[in-house]
Amino acid sequence: MLSRNRMLIRSLLSSSFPCTRNFSGTTPPPRKFLETGDTLRQTRIFTNEDVTEYSKASLDSNPLHFDSEFARNAGFEDRLVHGMLVAALFPRIIASHFPGAVYVSQSLHYKSPVYVGDAVVGEVQVTNIRKNKSRYIVKFLTKCFKNDKLLVIDGEAVAILPTLAEEKVNVVD
């Protein structure tokens, strides 16, 4: 009896069965693969706390970021958000869609100031994809807009992606 059970188990294990991952009967949505021309976006409103925390981490305590009167005397409407903090939207956008991405380079051109409380849309657009072994080297045009239209930063970035299959990951603010 024991030997017959073993034979049955071996037979079942060596058999080929179709693999089904969705037991609910639904099929997963098709995965989106990154292509030249694709654009990814995220919106962020920068707060006083963001500016303070960035200043602590970067050791950038320029009074333009903390003193409204100083900023106005320098010709601005109010206190500025650090330009590099705004530009940090770019690697965040890429990593939130492609976990494990390695940010390689970034050029930046600051066009207009960003103030605390401004809603900023960061945008990365794929301009080139090159396969290198099992990874992908992707070049992006990078732009940030405030008030949905005013260009505040533009530039280019390069990142190494482990895959071209997008995987939306929740990012923590």
From TrEMBL:
Highest taxon of the lineage: Eukaryota
GO MF: (3R)-hydroxyacyl-[acyl-carrier-protein] dehydratase activity
Pfam families: MaoC_dehydratas (PF01575)
Residues covered by the MaoC-like domain: 41-133
Any GO BP annotation: fatty acid biosynthetic process
Cross-referenced Gene3D superfamilies: Hotdog Thioesterase
Name of the protein: MaoC-like domain-containing protein
Source organism (scientific name): Salix dunnii
